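Give me the fold.
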Amino acid sequence: MKYSIMVSSVLMVLALGACSKPAPVVPATVVTVPVPGPAGPAGDKGTAGATGAAGDVGASGATGNTGATGEPGKTGGDTVIVVPPAKP
């Protein structure tokens, strides 16, 4: 019995000590902000800027794929090959 009272009192102290205490409230300070007047007339148009430099050359493209293998030649038949005469 004497230990249960001591344990409960320690728990009560810890529980009440963990309660948050509100911070004191400070009144907000008043800041005066100047209000802008009406807009003035538009200014003169500016001059055109200089032309930019040329860009860098792009990288080379990748090598293409190898083509398909052709069909083997046919033997025999009635194909005639005409060879033109050489020019003199």
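The CA atoms of residues 6 and 12 lie 10 Å apart.
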